[in-house]
Amino acid sequence: MRACLIIRHAIAEDREVFAHTGRPDGERPLTEAGRARMETAARGLEKLVPEVARVLTSPWTRARETAEIVARAYGDLPLATSPLLLPGADPGELLDWVFGPAHPGLSALVGHEPHLSEWIGWATSGKPVSLVDMKKGGACLIAFPEGPAAGTGIIRWLAPPKVLRGLGGKGGKR
After folding, report:
1. pLDDT at 171
2. In which domain, by residue range, is 116 found?
3. β-bridge pairing 107-111 and 2-8
4. DSSP tag of 12
5. CB of 128 within 8 A of CB of 119?
């Protein structure tokens, strides 16, 4: 059975405050608290999903930094960047890329809202609608028992960051 792990980026700098730097929003980094919480959550993810082959990430800084934390928690997994994990990307192209011959095994995808929840909706219902609430630093495992195609995915679990941090050994309080 094919599956993928969907992860929303961790807590990033405030959008409005960062806008005053004059830099594009895609360069907005994680906060120190966001990094620390994601490190604990990544340990929890590793307990829930012990075998991940690679981490695929949006090119935006906050997603890439989150992906690097997840990759380290799994023993320095390979990391690939794709604009298909940016808001507005075609869900079918992302599905084809994730499950293409270059990506055997389970991939962890790190991206943004509302794109991730809409992709989950598309994967499970065939329509790009948000059916779940992906919290910053939260994760969702989707299985495709009959092969990856729109509307064939099944949500195995959806975990908010507090649950992942609890599994990671910090009791969710950091």
Report:
1. 46
2. 2-170
3. parallel
4. B
5. yes
Q: What is the tally of structural domains in the chain?
A: 1
Q: Which two tokens stand for residue 1?
A: 């059975």
Hey, which bits of the chain come out as E strands? 2-8, 54-57, 79-81, 107-111, 139-144, 154-159
Instruction: Return the structure tokens found at 20.
Output: 């005053």
Report the side by side order of strands in the sheet with 2-8. Answer: 79-81, 54-57, 107-111, 2-8, 139-144, 154-159
pLDDT in tens, 16-52: 999 999 999 999 999 999 999 999 999 999 999 999 9
Q: Is 17 exposed, middle or buried (0-12, 13-18, 19+ CB in 10 A)?
A: exposed
Average pLDDT over residues 87-98: 95
Backbone angles phi, psi at 81, to 5 degrees: -115, 140
What CATH number has the domain bearing residue 7?
Answer: 3.40.50.1240
Give the count of beta carbons closer than 10 Å to the beta carbon of residue 151. 11
